[in-house]
């Protein structure tokens, strides 16, 4: 869809040290296309984000936080303020990743608080949704959780929704080496778009980007990104490697 710019987002989780971050950025700087061709983002641990913003100052790569707190400031030891993320130059923030839901008690309601906090501070949320557990018995065929989409977006206005990206990441595909088929990924993205049409309007549903994530590699990305409702990929393991990251960006072009 010409009105939606493809988006490739790396999610490094807690996998790189300071020197690795610098080395990766050295290798990709100057090699990613302009952001009106393909947008690129890299999510990393908070403590590297300022350095990354500086290292990519001449590059269209956007820096992405992996989490954020829902209050702008105050007595919340150990959390990261959305205002501070904006202040250091982060552009996007991942919210509701499956690993946060699973290991850190992230709930639909904290996801929603974080989404509205990010938007209020001028950060763009990339909201992760996984599959509907009520269809868990046939989980390889499960649909994305419409309830997670609706809950995450509660209170998000028509103006704000344009700054939101949604990412469907089936839990069984994350880090498993087994990606959803392009057909499954398209079905899921289509259902998310239908949900956006109901929550907002059909026009808005066509404007919001929907990504697929879960064991994406340069080998399977092309078919996935060719799908009509899929605007890009959220990539963990493959995006740790600068060559593979550049290949994924080239495929998105
Ligand atoms: C992720 O963590 O968002 C992810 C998709 O990881 P992987 O690409 O390793 O499956």
From TrEMBL:
The protein's annotated pathway: Carbohydrate degradation; glycolysis; D-glyceraldehyde 3-phosphate from glycerone phosphate: step 1/1; Carbohydrate biosynthesis; gluconeogenesis
GO-annotated biological processes: gluconeogenesis; glyceraldehyde-3-phosphate biosynthetic process; glycerol catabolic process; glycolytic process
Protein residues bound to substrate: 11-13, 175, 215
Predominant location category: cytoplasm
Catalytic function, reaction form: D-glyceraldehyde 3-phosphate = dihydroxyacetone phosphate
InterPro entries: Aldolase_TIM (IPR013785), TIM_sf (IPR035990), TrioseP_Isoase_bac/euk (IPR022896), Triosephosphate_isomerase (IPR000652), Triosephosphate_isomerase_AS (IPR020861)
Keyword annotations: Cytoplasm, Gluconeogenesis, Glycolysis, Isomerase
Protein localization: Cytoplasm
GO cellular component: cytosol
Pfam families tied to this protein: TIM (PF00121)
EC number(s) given by UniProt: 5.3.1.1
GO molecular function, one term: triose-phosphate isomerase activity
Catalytic residues of the enzyme: 97, 169
Family in the record: Belongs to the triosephosphate isomerase family.
SUBUNIT field: Homodimer.
Functional description taken from the UniProt entry: Involved in the gluconeogenesis. Catalyzes stereospecifically the conversion of dihydroxyacetone phosphate (DHAP) to D-glyceraldehyde-3-phosphate (G3P).
Record's protein name: Triosephosphate isomerase
Biological source species: Leuconostoc mesenteroides subsp. mesenteroides (strain ATCC 8293 / DSM 20343 / BCRC 11652 / CCM 1803 / JCM 6124 / NCDO 523 / NBRC 100496 / NCIMB 8023 / NCTC 12954 / NRRL B-1118 / 37Y)
């Amino acid at each position: 869809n010409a009105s939606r710019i493809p988006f490739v987002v790396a999610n490094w989780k807690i996998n790189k040290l300071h020197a690795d971050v610098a080395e990766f950025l050295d290798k990709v700087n100057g090699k990613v296309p302009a952001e009106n061709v393909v947008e690129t983002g890299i999510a990393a641990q908070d403590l590297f984000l300022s350095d990354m913003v500086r290292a990519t100052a001449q590059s269209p790569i956007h820096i992405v936080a992996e989490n954020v707190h829902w209050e702008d400031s105050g007595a919340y030891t150990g959390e990261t303020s959305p205002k501070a993320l904006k202040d250091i130059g982060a552009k996007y923030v991942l919210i509701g990743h499956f690993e946060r839901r699973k290991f850190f008690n992230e709930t639909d309601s904290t996801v929603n608080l974080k989404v509205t906090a990010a938007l209020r501070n001028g950060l763009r949320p990339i909201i992760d949704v996984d599959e509907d557990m009520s269809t868990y018995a046939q989980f390889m065929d499960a649909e994305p959780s419409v309830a997670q989409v609706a809950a995450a977006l509660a209170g998000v206005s028509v103006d704000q929704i344009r700054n939101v990206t949604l990412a469907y990441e089936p839990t069984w595909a994350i880090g498993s080496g087994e990606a959803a088929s392009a057909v499954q990924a398209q079905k899921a993205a289509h259902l998310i778009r239908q949900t956006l049409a109901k929550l907002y309007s059909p026009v808005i549903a066509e404007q919001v980007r929907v990504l697929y994530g879960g064991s994406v590699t340069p080998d399977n990305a092309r078919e996935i990104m060719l799908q009509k409702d899929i605007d890009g990929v959220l990539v963990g393991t493959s995006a740790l490697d600068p060559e593979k990251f550049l290949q994924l960006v080239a495929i998105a072009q």
